[in-house]
TrEMBL record:
One of its GO terms (biological process) is base-excision repair. It comes from Corynebacterium glyciniphilum AJ 3170. Zn(2+) binds at residue 186. It comes from the Bacteria. This is Putative 3-methyladenine DNA glycosylase. GO terms for molecular function: DNA-3-methyladenine glycosylase activity; metal ion binding.
Length: 210
């Protein structure tokens, strides 16, 4: 069973990416594009955590509110959030008001800042995450062929937890790796397959995001 749908523009996408204009735009311009800056990676880790148990469409609709509430996902600013900021976030109807996920975002901002001692400002968290990029990427023909975890996502999850991050389980980290370009799980035949430029037709590494 093919999981690709041809849209009105004649381009092939998975069915989920054709379910709304919001998801189509995200799929066509962001999903799988390499993220190599600290703030961008922190935002994606944060949003992946908030997505747990919810649809990605819900998170995308609320992303402008998330960005406003978490000050553009600036790790330095979020790391300094205290109880007053936490209380404000819990009253913000524009975001997902989940106490554990909000506290996790603050905790992860603090862990992000702490990583700079090893990797430097600007790329620290991104460089850390990219160090778990696999040597090969999947070549899925159907949605059912796309894995939900990998040895690398398990290892990344463990490493991040060791560095003080929370809400970074293996499944969530595989979703992060897909979204941030560490793996390419665009279905073969999709017009976005290979959009990162980091993999050849056989799924072997063919480039460096840096």
């Amino acid at each position: 069973m093919s999981a690709l749908v041809t849209g009105p523009d004649g381009l092939a996408r998975p069915a989920w990416a054709e379910s709304s204009g919001l998801l189509r735009g995200y799929y066509d311009t962001e999903w799988g594009v390499p993220v190599t800056d600290e703030r961008g990676m922190f935002e994606r880790i944060s949003l992946e955590a908030f997505q747990s148990g919810l649809s990605w469409a819900t998170i995308l609709r609320k992303r402008p509110a998330f960005r406003a509430a978490f000050r553009g996902f600036d790790p330095d600013v979020v790391a300094d959030f205290g109880e007053a900021e936490y209380d404000t976030l819990m009253q913000d109807a524009g975001i997902v008001r989940n106490a554990r996920k909000i506290r996790a975002t603050i905790t992860n901002a603090q862990a992000t800042v702490a990583l700079r001692g090893r990797y430097g400002s600007g790329t620290g968290l991104a460089e850390f995450v990219w160090s778990f990029r696999p040597e090969r990427t999947p070549l899925p023909e159907r949605i059912e062929d796309v894995p939900t975890t990998s040895p690398e996502s398990v290892a990344l999850s463990k490493a991040l937890k060791k560095e003080g991050f929370v809400f970074v389980g293996p499944t969530t980290m595989f979703a992060l790796m897909e979204a941030a370009g560490l793996v390419d799980t665009h279905l073969t035949g999709s017009h976005r397959r290979g959009c990162s430029g980091l993999w050849d037709a056989e799924g072997e590494s063919a480039g460096d995001p840096w």
